[in-house]
Structure formats: structure tokens, C-alpha cells
Amino acid sequence: MTKEYKTITEIAGPLIFLEKTEPVGYGELVHINLPDGTTKRGQVLDTSTDVVAVQVFEGTGGLNEESGVVFSGETIKLPVSKDMLGRILSGAGEPLDGGPRIVPEDRVDVNGASMNPYSRMPPEDFIQTGISTIDGTNTLVRGQKLPIFSGSGLPHNEIALQIARQAKVPGSDEPFAVVFAAMGITNEEAQYFMEDFEKTGALERAVVFLNLADDPAVERIITPRMALTAAEYLAYEHDMHVLVILTDITNYCEALRQMGAAREEVPGRRGYPGYMYTDLASLYERAGVIKGLKGSVTQFSILTMPGDDITHPIPDLSGYITEGQIVVSRELHMKGIYPPINVLPSLSRLMNSGIGEGKTRDDHKAVSDQMYAGYAEGRDLRGLVAIVGKEALSERDQKILEFADLFEDRFVRQARDEDRSIEDTLQVGWDILSELPEALLTRIDNKYIEKYHPAHKSN
């Protein structure tokens, strides 16, 4: 027989505290019966011999000491099915698209199972996003976790949607899906996301979770776990290759800080919980490829850096866990360049595993290195020009300076619906490199110059 406890001693923000309960498990699902007959859901956040702390998903409005609490004996589970594809759900997994509830093939714990490091396969398969600054110079590899570091007011949501529409493994007919989770977004943003998915047809192969800004902060902590659980199910039960896009991790961390304050925890850096590194790792580390299984989970996590500060705890900790970062530049955005991705501070640590002959093209690494070197030097020369003027530069330096402008205008700049293949991206790279004297192409082997350089191909 299920026991109902009416031993609430305190209500603090989204938390309630109970006394005199029998032993309950951490993370256990809770049903709270209000005096008016309605029911709310919660989760055990902390448990001891004397007090149990429960976080309430729908907020604590209407709760009082007469409310009854029932412990279910199980953790939060997501009903999963292949029919999730094409659906738009709330952050708690409830339908938002007017469709019926999902008939589950299974119910899976949203916290996931730990991935044995020995079982991980080294990521090595190239994923084409259609965005040159990612595919060409910061390549995404299947099974990788690669965050996008952005700032408020920058078009990271547009970039996320473009990746969701365009991502594919070229030359492969293996099933590919996208799981898109938005946390703490406005109603306007939610409508924008839903319209874009439906208008472009990307929804057919996508599962969308939307947690709105006016939804309880507690639900925001569950949303990415719901999304990753759906991704793992599609990947490991239905052999699909799944790209997970999480936006915005900063809103998730703010919810963590709010929960920590309600629990009166000792804060860490800038008020965030001391366990935030571990908590973020529990999300990021759910990406990967497992030996013996056909499917894979790849992650793009988008976070807005408060004050554009890359040393802020959220991007700082994320950088330690993930395999690189894509940095969105306010300077490029102010120039009207889309997507405003700055390749210089960006990095994909697994890029070399996913490019080269048989994967992208044999000249990929050399072209990427040469463009990076030329653009870095050109950016430095801009600072020099501001001091001494362009006329003071040597002819060589003027060519490098012009290359930096060409790189931004032709390689970085793309239309919002432009889906460049890796061949198109490398061709654009060769076209702008051909504006430099061949003597300056010191990072490209002569065999590649003879094979791909426009001056030689026309002969």
C-alpha cells in the first residue's frame, strides 16, 4: 500500500522539505496532492535520516502543510518510441504540437547509464554541417561533443537551426536524426523554432524539446536529460546517428544556481554550485560511439558567455570537458557577416581524425592550416595598419592583409540557407588562396598545389 506523507515542514522557492519519512531514494519521482485535488510532480533532491528535500517541477504555488506527498519508488523516466521523430515536446516530454501522447516502446531513466570508457570507439567519421568555418577549419566528427561559445544578441539560434537542417554524413545512407532541446527560451523564440522546423521539413527527422522561460527552473534541469535519453534510444536501439543540439547551456546553469541557492548550499565561483563541473560532465559525456553498436550520439551545445567573457565559469568548465569549441564573434557580426564564426579561437580537437583521403579530401588539412595561418597574420597586420598606415606595409604584407578580408567575405560569409558541401568549402578555400603568390603557400605540399590550385587546374 502506497503511503502519503503530510509532514511538510518548509517550502523554499521550488523546494519542499519533509520529515519522518521512511527511507527514500535519491532522484525518486514524487507526486504531491494539493488540498484542491490537483497533483504536482517532483523529484527527491536530497535525502537523509531526518529530512527529505523535494524539488517541485510545476512550482510550489498552492502547496501548504496539508498537501500530501507520495513517493513513487522509481526515478523519472521518458516514454520513448521511434514515433518521437517529427514531434515537438515540452521540456518535461509532454506534447506541444497538438498531437497525441507518444505510445511508448519503452520507458527509460532520463539520467542514462554510464558509458564504460573502454567501450568507447575513437570518433573518426566526418559530419558535414554545410557551414564552411566548421567543416573546413573546425571539423565536427561523429561522436564528438563540440560546444558553440556565443554572446547575447548574436545569431547562435540561427546557426543552430541551420546545422539542424543541413547536418548529414556525406555519401552515407545510414539513418540520421536530430534531437533539438531549447532551455529557457521566450515564447517568440519557441514559435520561431517550431515554424522553421515545420517550414523547412527538418522536423521529419527531428525530436524537439522546448522549455520556455516562464516554465519552472526545475524543468530546465530535466530538459537536456530528456533530449539525451531520446537520442541514446534512437542511436542504440534503432541504429541511428543522432546529432543533439542543446541551447542555451547558460540558462541551464542559471537554473542550477537557483536550485543551489534554494537549498542554501555554499556557493562556488560567481555563485554557481561547486558541483557544476560534474553536473555538466554528466550531460556532455553522454556523447560518443560505442563498440559493437551501429548508432552514435554527437553533441552541439550552445552557450552564451555572460559579458562575452570566455573565462566565465560556464564556458571555462565546458572547455575542460568538451573536445574544442566554436566561437561566435561580435566583431564579425557587427560587420554584417553571417555566420560570424571566428576560426582563430575556435578549435576541434578531433578534426584530424575525421578528415583526409577517404573521409573528406586529401588536401583538407593543408588548406585549413594555410588559411588559418594567413588569416591570423592578416588580423595582426590590421593592428599594425591602424598605427603606421597601409602604405608602410611591404607588398607581401599587403597581399596577406587583402587575404584576411577575402577570407571573411568569401569563406566565412554564407547565406542563412546556403548548404556548402565539403568540396564547395575547399574550392572556396583554394579560390581565395590563389590570390596569394604561390611562394607564400608554405603550408601546402606542392603535389596539392599542382592538383587543386586554380592556376594549375586550368592548364
Radius of gyration: 25 Å
Low-confidence stretches: none
Oligomer state of the chains in this structure: single chain
Which percent band covers the strand fraction? 15-25%
Count of alpha and pi helical runs: 14
Number of domains: 3
What is the CATH class designation of the largest domain?
Alpha Beta
CATH fold-level label of the largest domain? Rossmann fold
Number of strands: 21
Query: Major sheet: size, sense and barrel closure?
Result: 10 strands, mixed
CATH architecture of the largest domain: 3-Layer(aba) Sandwich
Mean pLDDT: 89
Helix content: 25-40%
Shape: elongated
Distance between the termini: 86 Å
Protein name: A-type ATP synthase subunit B
Domain ATP synthase A/B type C-terminal: 354-452
Pfam families: ATP-synt_ab (PF00006), ATP-synt_ab_N (PF02874), ATP-synt_VA_C (PF22919)
Subunit structure: Has multiple subunits with at least A(3), B(3), C, D, E, F, H, I and proteolipid K(x).
Architecture blueprint of SSEs:
Blueprint: E1 4-5, E2 8-12, E3 15-19, E4 28-33, E5 39-47, E6 51-56, E7 68-75, E8 77-80, E9 87-90, E10 106-109, E11 120-121, E12 126-127, H1 132-135, E13 140-141, E14 148-150, H2 156-166, E15 176-185, H3 187-200, E16 206-212, H4 217-237, E17 241-247, H5 249-262, H6 276-284, E18 288-290, E19 296-304, H7 313-321, E20 324-328, H8 330-334, E21 341-348, H9 351-354, H10 364-388, H11 395-412, H12 422-433, H13 446-452, H14 454-457
Parallel strand pairs: 9-16, 14-19, 14-20, 15-16, 15-17, 17-19
Antiparallel strand pairs: 1-7, 2-3, 3-6, 4-5, 4-7, 5-6, 8-10, 11-18, 12-13, 18-19, 20-21
